[in-house]
Amino acid sequence: MTHSNSRGNPTPDSAPTVTEALHTTLEVPFEDAVPHVQLEHELAGFETVAVSRMDEMIRGVLGEEVPRTALLVVCHAEVAKAALDIDPTLAAMMPCVTGVYEDDDGTVHVHHLSTTKAMRDLGAAPGDPDAVQALVDMTGELMNEVWENIERYEPQSGSEA
Fold it and tell me: pTM of this prediction?
């Protein structure tokens, strides 16, 4: 079985971390999408750790152009506590990251791979598989709320920045 990534390119069989990734497109300018996605994470209880513009970093360091891409690095205190309770080494896989990028056609994409599913799928959380699945479920519920709100976004017409 093959799957497709967000650009429609076939990918080989992948772990649930990849096949169950969250992806959507937004019909708003990139510069409006980034704060919107950040706000929806924050409204669901995630703290913004950083917002990083990868395109600007690459341009500044390498002098090369890539599509506009922002990384939203966020952490939810309950998820972090549950992960650390399972195994403190899981801190090396945290926090969560959501990418916002613009493709060559100007379409804005939002993409999220679950950190907790990666912990599970990579076997990084030894011990109680039920505790790991509970962590995956908790994170999934939170991210589903975020995603529903991201997809519901409709910019206010005539509003000024």
Answer: 0.84
The answer to whether the beta carbons of residues 94 and 75 sit under 8 Å apart is yes
25 alpha carbon, distance to own chain's centre:
13
Give me the residue label for tokens 């699945």: 133
Domain 15-151 has CATH 3.40.1280.10: no
Task: With beta carbons less than 8 A apart as the criterion, state whether 20 and 117 touch.
Answer: yes
Give me the residue spans of the domains in the chain: 15-151
- Tell me what pLDDT residue 100 has: 98
The answer to whether the CB of 108 falls within 8 A of the CB of 100 is yes
Which pLDDT band, with edges at 50, 70 and 90, does 155 fall under?
Answer: low
In the 3-class helix/strand/coil scheme, how is 96-130 assigned residue by residue? Answer: EEEEEEECCCCCEEEEECCHHHHHHHCCCCCCCHH
Helix axis angle for 30-43 and 129-151, nearest 10°, is 130
Supply 9's token pair.
Answer: 């390119």
- Cβ-Cβ contacts under 8 Å for 47 (sequence gap 6 or more): 74, 75, 76, 77
